[in-house]
Amino acid sequence: MPANTMSKAERDQSHARVFDLSQHPLRELNQALHKLTPGSNETAWEVLHPMGSHSVAVGVDQPVSIDVRGSVGYYCGGMNDGGAITVHGSAGPGVAENMMSGSIVIKGDASQYAGATGRGGLLVIEGNASSRCGISMKGIDIVVHGNIGHMSAFMAQSGNLVVLGDAGDALGDSIYEARLFVRGKVESLGADCIAKEMRPEHIELVQGLLDKAGVTGVKASEFKRYGSARKLYNFNIDNADAY
Amino acid sequence: MCGIVGLFLKDKALEPKLGAMLSEMLICLTDRGPDSAGIAIYGTATGNEAKITVQSPKPDRDFRGLDADLAKAIGAPVSVAVKSTHAVIRTTPDKVDAAREALQALRPDIRVMGAGEAVEIYKEVGLPEAVVDRFDVRSMTGTHGIGHTRMATESAVTTMGAHPFSTGADQCLVHNGSLSNHNNVRRELVRDGMKFETENDTEVAAAYLSNRMAHGKNLGEALEGTLSDLDGFFTFVVGTKNGFGVVRDPIACKPAVMAETDQYVAFGSEYRALTKLPGIDNARVWEPEPATVYFWEH
Question: Which parts of the sequence belong to the Glutamine amidotransferase type-2 domain (chain B) (predicted)?
Answer without folding.
Answer: 2-298
